[in-house]
Structure formats: C-alpha cells, structure tokens
Amino acid sequence: MRNLTDRAREAKDKKAAIGPDVDLATFTAEPVRHDYVKDLKTLPVVDRERLIQAGIDTTESGRAGTYIQMDTAVVHAHAKQEGLEVIPIKEALKKHEWAREHYWKLVSVDADKYTAAAELNLHDGYVIRALPGAKAVWPVQACLYLDKDNISQYVHNLIIAEEGSELHVITGCATSPRLKRGLHVGISEFFVKKNAKLSFTMIHHWAEEVMVRPRSVGIVEEGGLFLNNYICMKPVRSLQMYPTTHLVGKGAVARFYSILVGTPGSEMDVGGRILLKAEDTKAEIIARAITNGGTIINRGDLVGEVTGVKAHLECKGLILNGGIIHAIPELQGKADGVEMSHEAAVGKIAQEEILYLMSRGLSEDEAISTIVRGFLSVDIPGLPPKLQEEIDRAVDLSSKDVM
Amino acid sequence: MLLIEDLQVKLGEREVLRHIDLQINPGETHILFGPNGSGKTSLLMTIMGYPQYKVTAGRITFKGVDITNLPINERARLGIGMSYQRPPTVNGLKTRQMVQICAGGRDVDVAGMAARMNFTDFLDRDINAGFSGGEIKRSELVQLMAQQPDLLLFDEPESGVDLENIALIGNTISMLLQRDFHTEPHKSQLQRKKERTKMGLIITHTGFILDYVTADKGQVLFNGVLSCSNNPSDIFNCIKVMGYEECVKCAI
C-alpha cells in the first residue's frame, strides 16, 4: 500500500491524455457524514425518486443485493443471494487478502491525476463479487449518489465474477436536486474469470455542473463473457472516460453498448477499447449518440492481436437540434487473419421516415420521438430481460426529454 | 367521396400533374394505369399529402373536407391510407410496434393479422429492414389492416411479389376494399355492394392484380394528364395490344 501512495503522490498533477482538465482543488473532498440506513424504505422521498431514475429500486424487489453510497459515506451494503458478496471497499481491503490482490491490479494508480486522487482521497466504493459457480438470478444494484453541493467523490469499485459464476450489476449514479456542482471520480476494475459471465449496466444521471471522470479496466479470461452497457442521457458539464477491456483467454467475449444524449452545455468524451489477445476472442462496440446542442466525442478502438479474432465497431450519431458529434472509430489489426470492421454514421432524422409515420396517423412530434426511440433502442443479446427493461425505461424517459 | 378538381402539381421545378379531375365515390375502386414516369405515384403521394408535391392549382376534397393543404397525419386521421412500394426503414422500430401505431390506440389482433399474411416471423424485426419486395407488400397490408382507412391507395401492390403470394396479396386487397366473397357470407352480394363504403385507387403495371380485385373504373395517366376513363379490363387489353400512346386517344 505504501508503494501505491507514493506513486499516487507523484502523479497527482498529471493531466489526463484526453478531455478538459479539471481543477480538483475547486471541489471539497472532506468526508460528509451520512447515517447508515438499514431499511431503504426509510429514505426521504426525494432521494428515493432520484434513485429510481438511476435504476435503483428501494423496495429491492428483483434485486440480488444493494450498495448505496452518498457523497463519501456508505449508506447501505448487503447481498441478498447466497454466493454473492457486496462489501464496501475499505472494509474489504482491511479484511480480505483477495480484495487487496485485485485492488489497482488493472488500472494504474499513476495513470493520471484522477486515479492518483482516487487513491489519496479514497471515499470507499463497492466490491461486488460472485463466488465460483454462483449464478445470480437478479442483478445487484449499486448507486453512487452526490448530495452535498461542490463535493468531490472519489470511489474505487471491484467487480469480480469468479470462475463459472454469473453476475449482473446495475449501477446508477445520481445527484440530489439541491446539488449544483460536483465531481465524481470512479475507478472500476472488472474481473471476469474462466467461463464466468458478467453484465454491467451503468446509468448516469448527473446535473448540469457536474464533472465526471470514470477510469475503468476489465479483464476476461477463457470462455468468459463481459457485457458492458452505458447510458448517459442527462446533462453533465464534462464527462470523459475510455474504459478498456483485455480479452486474455481463449473464446473470451466482450460487448460494449453505449447510449449518449448530449444536452446543451454538455460535453461528453466517451470511448471504449477492447484488446483481443487470445484466439477465438470476439468483441463488439455499439454506440448511439444523439445531441440537441451538446458536444459528443465518441471513440472506439478495437485491437486484434492474434489470428482469427472477430471484432466489430458501430457508431451512429444523430444531430437533432445543433451540437457536435465527433465519431472516432479505430481498428488495429496486428496479425494475419483478423476479421475486424466498423461502421460510423452521423446524420439527421430522415424526412422520409417522419412522413411515413405521419401517414400512419402520428403527429410530426410523435413521429420524431418514435424514430429517436427506435434509434436509441439496442437489443443486447445475453442481457437478462429485467435489465433490458431497465434500459428501455431509461431510454423512454429520456427520449421524451430530448424532444 | 374523393373529389379532385383541376389539380396541378409540381415536384421541385417540374410539373408532374396537369389538370387532373377524378371522382371516386364511396364503395368504388379505380385502377390507375400509365407508363413509367407518367405521374401515377405523384398522384397518390399528392392525395396522401406529401409536402414535396406542391399543389399549384385545383383542389382535393375528401368526405366533404377540403384537404388540399391538410398535413399528412390529418389526412390519415380522416381515413386515407397508403400501401407504399418502397417505404423507408425505421431502425429500432419493430414491425409489431408499427402495426400498433397504425391501429391508432385501438386494440387490434396484431398476431392474427400477421398470421393471415404469413408475416409472423417479421413482427420482431425492424420495420422494412432488409425486407424483399414481396415482404414489403405483405408488411404494408398488415399495417393497412390495422389502420382500416376508408380510401386506400396502393402503389404497385404486386411488384416484386412471387407467384405464391400474389393470390394472398390480391385477396387481402379485395378484403380491405370490401370486395371479397368470404366476409359476411349471410348477405347477398347485391346487399354487400350496396353497403360497400371503402374506396380504392390502385396503381398497376402488370394488371395481375385484376385477377383478384374487381374494379369499377380504369384511369390512364399519361404525361401528367388523366387521359382515359373506362372499364379497367378494356383499358388493360387496349394497352396490351396497342400501347399507352394509342390507348390514351380514347379521351379525344
């Protein structure tokens, strides 16, 4: 641990390779006290409603466990299903050798000032783990909530699907209505062990003056499947992330899906990189971006390092009402016989489609929102129906706002 | 009733329809003949209300309402519906949802309608995405079954349809126009004809559809002018033997 602290200190002023620089000193990192809540139903109604929008069901029906953190404090953490663990990371690091072994294993603590600050100011975070062979019936839900104005929240998450297990996580980040400005830095490390399956669905629900800097890396072993879904349809001042996944075992598969909506004043720089390092590995990155005044940079990078891998990248953007979409799809084939492709398109809604729907009786506005809804809807193979519903619901709520 | 009076239409700078007069009474179906580029599709699109077809003179009245300047969705609400030849794909919009949209909030048996058109497997596919010519026609008819318009416009409903499906498509159009012999078998055909309200305007190139759908009148559109109005089979036979140019002379 000593070594990590030293490395973090050295990197504490190191700017990130991409994205606008954030002055961390303008936010307060002081711990904020929030009491632990045993019964989620006792949360205030405003907070509960915000949590629901971020995909957190406070009744916990159809959930395998819950983790909720407000600002810097853990408010709730427990697993309902046997074989699953939901533990605050500080506690896990103290108690479990395995947690220490996975901590900072994939993300470099000195990658940039944000990773460094997350080590130096660690405000907890979650460890969600499925024990070997455990099959989660329901998703575990996690929420990192910003409540106090001008707070900076530094969290570190470990998501571990042990050998032969199946784990689904839905995580929502949200802010309280009273918060105007804030910073969220989240380190996430994903471990999908041999023949394990992990789906991770993240729904972001920020506020207009919030800066967000997630840093995440995943690793997928032989026969493993990693589904990573990201949805951000609400305003955010600046969001920059470039999650990376390494497919290191034979037949490992990773699929990234993202849905981004750029509202006026928002700036999103969201990428996805998958490195295919073992035979028969497959990767897919699918992104849908809509702007009605915001700026969206959509990056994707697939790196095929061995023969016979398959990878596809698809990035579609729709400019509704001003704004910028910059699609940057990249493919790197580093061996004979890789099969890699990409398609990128940025455009507007076709008038022909609007008129076709109007001739079936929809008004112009209804036709446009139907097309937007269709554009944003992606079928994610392998995702439990409950989570697909959750995504559809988020898209439904927000495609109305876009109009 | 659909009443078109001295209609003149421009598409961009080009005049595509000139001095069109057409009357379709309740219960009537007309067949629209004409060579490529004569303005047949333009006429249907103008009746449906596509804004790129600019009406420069004349007017269109439907059910007593002047719809010349009415937006497309209000015409749909009044009871005009169209079967397209090449409708656009709407990504992410399932055929099932599209059929429900056509029903406009009414409760309809989507699965039953699709089954009738051998279209069940397509309900969960994005509308028109990768559909063949024949599949598009079947999809359009399922939509019209749900929409139940009073005036149905068909743009070459038999083009791209294989022999196996031509009867299915023809018979379905016949049913939509209240011209089949299976619905309401307890009524006499005379009675059914009296009660018939649905109006149809069908574009055909091949005339194959005439084997399945009876029609009251044939119209020939030539260079943007409606030139001939006669028994549809007579017109079709004349075109087959003499060609369009000779056939339109019947108007003179």
**How many domains would you count in the coordinates of chain A?**
2
The average pLDDT of chain B is 92
Structural class of chain A: alpha/beta
**What is the radius of gyration of chain A?**
20 Å
Count of structural domains of chain B: 1
Averaged pLDDT of chain A, please? 92
Order of neighbouring strands in the sheet with most strands of chain B = 6-7-8-3-9-10
Which runs of chain B of at least 5 residues are low in confidence (pLDDT < 50)? none
Strand order of the largest sheet of chain A: 2-1-5-7-9-11-14-17-19-21
Strand content of chain B: 25-35%
**Helix and strand element order of chain A:** HHEEEHHHEEEEEEEEEEEEEEEEEEHHH
Counting DSSP E segments of at least 2 residues, the number of strands of chain B comes to 10
CATH architecture term of chain B: 3-Layer(aba) Sandwich
Q: Rg of chain B, please?
A: 18 Å
Largest sheet of chain A: 10 strands, mixed
Principal-axis shape of chain A: globular
Task: Explain the layout of strands and helices.
The complex is a heterodimer of chains A (403) and B (252).
Chain A: H1 2-10, H2 45-53, E1 65-70, E2 73-79, E3 84-88, H3 89-95, H4 97-102, H5 113-120, E4 126-130, E5 140-146, E6 151-161, E7 166-175, E8 181-192, E9 197-205, E10 209-220, E11 225-232, E12 238-241, E13 244-247, E14 253-262, E15 267-270, E16 273-276, E17 282-291, E18 295-304, E19 310-319, E20 324-333, E21 339-347, H6 351-358, H7 364-376, H8 385-402
Parallel strand pairs in A: 1-5, 4-6, 5-7, 6-8, 7-9, 8-10, 9-11, 10-12, 10-13, 11-14, 12-15, 13-16, 14-17, 15-18, 16-18, 17-19, 18-20, 19-21
Antiparallel strand pairs in A: 1-2, 3-4
Helix pairs in contact in A: 1-5, 6-7, 7-8
Chain B: E1 2-11, E2 14-24, E3 29-33, H1 40-48, E4 53-62, E5 65-66, H2 72-78, E6 80-83, H3 95-103, H4 110-116, H5 133-147, E7 151-155, H6 163-176, H7 189-195, E8 199-203, E9 217-222, E10 225-230, H8 232-242, H9 244-247
Parallel strand pairs in B: 3-8, 3-9, 6-7, 7-8
Antiparallel strand pairs in B: 1-2, 1-4, 4-5, 9-10
Helix pairs in contact in B: 3-5, 5-6
